[in-house]
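Task: encode each sequence below as structure tokens.

Item 1
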Amino acid sequence: MDTKLEIAKNWLPRYTGMPLEMFGDYILITNFKDYVIKFADRFNCDVYGEGRAMQASTNSDGLTIINYGIGSPNAATIMDLLVAAKPKGVLFLGKCGGLKNSSEIGNFILPIGAIRGDGTSNDYFPPEVPALPSFKLHKFVSDIIIEKESDYRTGVIFTTNRRVWEHDKRFLKRLKKTTAIGVDMETATVFSVGHFNDIARGALLLVSDVPLTPEGVKTETSDKEVTQKWVDLHLEIGIKAMTDIGKSGEEIKHFKY
């Protein structure tokens, strides 16, 4: 195997346990196995990848969901391996920390861009290249959020490959200076590697904590509460948006400069 495509065609099924021909044209990616299980239960379809690095499932409409794990390197891995499936669109369903007073737990964020503090994306583009979504994909997601009588905020996400930084006052000060609306570990990577691979991509983030204050840092108890209250809607919006895109037949064009 001496080409990227040959490697990806071998590794995508190896990582997920799902045959290559089962991947759909539109794909949801997430950090959470329970999203995949909820998806499979809803559509009565199989979950592949038990005991493997990633889990995946595809419904009868040809929509696929993948749990790729956590962190920037894993986000880059799945966005690289998806070249084997040649998806027409990929939507990341993730959680983030809210950095604004207006960013309350349970809010949705449609990022207009992401700050590349992840490090991983530097292997794909020079630092001055912005990490951006495919805006047409975000328009479909926006329409579904409104249709569901919900609301969302837009802004820039700061992506970092650090974990357990909530105690670090210097890092928190840096976050405030960026004026980012939220912080996560994957969005900039998904946008950058999607751009690199000519994959239309977007992100719908659920604010799961407000880490600028000690009492706002995520705990196991608070995360369970977020899951119970908002995860079903988060997943539903992603499913509906990507299904509608597929049924509309509209192409989400990607321009490479």
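Item 2
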Amino acid sequence: MKEIPVAELTMNPMTLIGREWMLITAGNKDRGYNTMTASWGHLGSIWGHSGGMPTSVVYVRPQRYTKEFMDREECYTLSFFSEDYKKQLGYLGSHSGRDGDKVAACGLTPVFDEDCTWFNEAKLVLVCRKLYRAPLVEEGFLDKTVLEDNYPKRDLHDLYIGQILRVLVSDEG
């Protein structure tokens, strides 16, 4: 992986997140880590001056094992893969790290760097520092059909806003 300035990042976030999916990972080698597949999220800018700071917004349901790591750690990573890894991402999104080493089960290689973990097979990695966390609340839904369609059990996500600190791209891509 090589690091590039965030300003050089070119991609379509609707495709990258919504269609290709991503892994949200928090933790490290010493304290442990967990990862989950996500297809909901945002990339953009908020706060700061001169256009705002580059940020990501991710959503994690309360019952997800990864939430424990997201709440505990200062940083998280977003790892994006080629279409060749769709099966592995499907597995990681449907199995819990509480039940075993799901990363090893699908053959991905974790990379441990400082307080972060990402995956060697990724084509793009965003290293993010948490800035804000808040639960989604029922009262916030102006269109109640969104609430009913996505939260029949009322297990609303927590949202996390993170400052994008580093952008890593595959040497092969």
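Check on item 2: The chain has a mean pLDDT of 95. The CA atoms of residues 99 and 154 lie 24 Å apart.
End of task.
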